[in-house]
Design a protein that fits this description.
Blueprint: H1 13-36, H2 39-50, H3 60-75, H4 79-82, H5 95-116, H6 118-126, H7 144-182, H8 191-221, H9 226-250, H10 254-286
Helix pairs in contact: 1-3, 1-7, 3-7, 5-9, 5-10, 7-8, 7-10, 8-9, 9-10
């Protein structure tokens, strides 16, 4: 069984247009952010890099381009076709499941950060242990209209990198290793458990990538925040497994990438809107107009 079924012989012009535009936008934002932003923004970018959070000039688009180039060189095929990213594969996206995943993830994130742990979240932001917007801290330093417009493509590049390496390469590698390990002489491996196990493995690794930097930072500062740490592990792990599930249903990386993309962009818009409301409230309290 192909872990990414439903491959169609169709063009990939839409994917490559999005991919190139996203990489260019990501490079532009990362290049102009530290120099074009304010002194406070540059300090936040340096602090983000020091905390292990993406900020300043990063190599995400370079890694994406390199990975896609290596895949093309090794296979002698269009890497977008190998990942099921044909133009017409978008029609196979399970819309209901994708919408539910986006809604649940977004609402749970706002619930934990805004209702259950508002005081702790604010303290961690002040201490520099949490950078609002995470990897989007630089795009948020641009003027609002640039943050909203360029942020779409910037987040597209960031999310595609995670989908490519985790839901794409890591998932397929784990699946093939499990199939090979479970193969019996004269028989075939049970494909169902290998797909599920591969999905769980990449999800756990994805969760650890988000959890470990926070755990180390909290431990060094002596901060006891078990619920926050649990959230930082459970949220990305659950999302990663859900993204694989809809990828399998849709037969490509499109469903998980779009879900991840929309979720992160919605979070960016939420943060920008919250900052705008706080700024207006502050001006109102101080009597400024």
């Amino acid at each position: 069984m192909n872990p990414l079924p439903g491959i169609h012989q169709n063009g990939t012009a839409l994917f490559w247009t999005i991919f190139v535009a996203s990489c260019v936008a990501c490079l532009w934002v990362d290049w102009t952010g530290p120099t074009g932003a304010s002194c406070a923004a540059r300090q936040q970018a340096r602090r983000a890099r020091g905390r292990g959070v993406q900020g300043g000039l990063n190599l995400v688009p370079i890694l994406c381009i390199t990975a896609m180039g290596i895949i093309a060189f090794v296979t002698r095929k269009d890497p977008a076709l190998l990942l099921g990213l044909e133009d017409n594969a978008i029609a196979n996206i399970p819309r209901a499941a994708t919408s539910v995943i986006i809604l649940l993830a977004f609402c749970s994130g706002r619930l934990v950060q805004g209702l259950l742990l508002p005081g702790l979240t604010s303290k961690l932001i002040r201490d520099g242990l949490i950078i609002p917007g995470g990897s989007f801290s630089l795009v948020m330093q641009q003027p609002l209209w640039i943050s909203l417009s360029a942020g779409i493509l910037y987040i597209g590049c960031q999310t595609f990198a995670e989908e490519l390496f985790f839901r794409g390469l890591a998932f397929l590698a784990f699946h093939r290793l499990l199939v090979f390990a479970g193969r019996q002489p004269g028989g075939a491996a049970d494909q169902a458990w290998t797909v599920t196990a591969a999905a769980l493995l990449q999800a756990l690794i994805f969760g650890l990538v988000h959890f470990l930097p926070a755990y180390v930072a909290f431990h060094r500062r002596g901060i006891k925040a078990p619920l926050m740490l649990w959230y930082m592990m459970a949220m990305p792990t659950g999302c990663a497994f859900a993204f694989v599930t809809i990828n399998l249903a849709g037969g490509s990386l499109w469903p998980g990438w779009i879900a991840h993309w929309v979720l992160n962009y919605a979070s960016l818009c939420w943060i920008l809107a919250s900052r705008l409301m706080k700024a207006r409230e502050s001006r109102y309290i101080t009597g400024e107009r």
